[in-house]
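Response to reviewer comment R2.3. The reviewers asked that we include at least one raw input/output pair. We reproduce the pair for Phosphoesterase here without editing.
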Amino acid sequence: MIADTHLPKRAKVLPTELWSAIDAADVVLHAGDWVDVATLDELEARSTRLEGVYGNNDGPELRSRLPEVARFDVERVRFAMVHETGASSGREERMARTFDDTDVLVFGHSHIPWDSQSASGLRLLNPGSPTDRRRQPNCTFLTAVADAGELRDVELHAIERRHP
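Raw output as returned:
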């Protein structure tokens, strides 16, 4: 799971660690703010299956190829994905009402990793950004396993900052 790649503004390329995870994944999720159409093209070419949405920084060409909200199943886990979810305060219950037929909501926008659950059981995941850490110690992405209707082994991966 990735979001907020912002290529080529925040980085020229995606980190090697992320490409290794993409190459190994059965499904790649991108929660918007691609910025560059070439990133979508490359992920489509390298991914076994790609699910994505557009973000607030994505222009007309990306918006013509991607939905604002995506809904899909992976191994009987019901996913929804959207770029923006609004304020962090009250997010779980607000999103549980909006996505009441969903097991997992993946979102982006803040560049801040997030893993929480609503009272009704909706799991909310934000992978952060693999290229723009903002106020976080590292750039990040998420991996997880969907199997037999269960999401497990959710892991936040930190990408170490590199200095020239």
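The domain at 16-159 is CATH 3.60.21.10 (Purple Acid Phosphatase; chain A, domain 2). Helices lie at 16-24, 37-46, 60-65, 91-98. Further pairs are available on request from the corresponding author.
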